Amino acid sequence: MSASPGPDGTPAHVAIIMDGNGRWATARGLPRSAGHRQGVEALRRTVRAAAEQGLRVLTLYSFSTENWSRPQAEVRFLLELLRRFIRTDVAELHQANVRVMIIGGRDGLETGLRAMFEEAEALTRGNTGLKLVIAFNYGSRQEIARAVQALAARVAEGLLAPAAITPELISGELDTAGLADPDLLIRTGGEQRISNFLLWQCAYTEFVFLPEYWPEFDGQSLARAIGIFRGRDRRFGGLKAQTA
Ligand code: FPP
């Protein structure tokens, strides 16, 4: 689905790879867990700022399919932070008319966590403000594989001709079905890679890489990234409109 910045050039959909929690903590002689805790504070600030700055969708990479390979204690801590965030923040997000959506694989997740995701989504389903999309147990290649499996099943049943498989049909099978593609992807922490995040959806997304660590991110950082985005010349593979 194509992206649609607002008339003043505000990106409708911003996706963020929230990187650098561990390094932020280590640089201060703190345990990595302290960085993740501050990361949640940055996340809260950013959700508020996103709504204030007029974004329609904010997608946050909170835990990747590859993050399970971290030490068990860190995985457990990150899961607990997410549980706590849903338990304590979703009611407030609901009050603020935010719609919460969770993308990523649900198979194999513990049932308590799945139930929490479903409750948060059900509670906020009717909200018309910012869409907050939390990517958890998310990997883009896995998401694409799930979409291909769903389409292949329809082909096998004789309900779909292989030649009828279009990019739009594939988009419609992804976890992000119905959402506009990100206009802007921000990665904090200085690394310049996409790490299996929204590979299909970022075909024409503008990337902004910031050196600051995620716990340092705030509304001003978001505004700065949006300023860089506004200065970009997006042609979507075509040519700039001729003025003469
Ligand atoms: C990257 O920092 C961050 C993560 C892997 C997790 C992001 C999680 C949060 C911001 C908090 C929990 C989320 C929610 C939704 C409540 P890193 O550990 O890779 O940092 P490093 O690259 O410096 O090691």
Word description of this protein:
By secondary structure, the protein is of the alpha/beta class. It has one domain (13-230): Undecaprenyl pyrophosphate synthetase, CATH 3.40.1180.10. It is built from 7 helices and 6 strands. The chain has helices spanning 21-27, 32-52, 72-95, 111-124, 140-156, 167-173, 219-230; strands spanning 13-17, 57-64, 99-103, 131-138, 184-187, 206-209. The chain has a 6-stranded parallel sheet with strand order 3-4-2-1-5-6, sandwiched between helices. Helix 4 (111-124) links the parallel strand 3 and strand 4. Helix 1 packs across helix 2 (32-52) and helix 2 (32-52) runs parallel beside helix 3 (72-95). The longest helix is centred in the middle third of the chain and has 24 residues, at 72-95. The radius of gyration is 19 Å and the shape is globular. The model has no long low-confidence stretch (mean pLDDT 95). Farnesyl diphosphate is lined by residues 18-23, 36, 39-40, 43, 62, 67, 78, 81-82, 85, 134, 189, 214.
Please sum up the structure shown.
The protein is of the alpha/beta class and 244 residues long. It has seven helices and six strands, in the order βααβαβαβααββα.
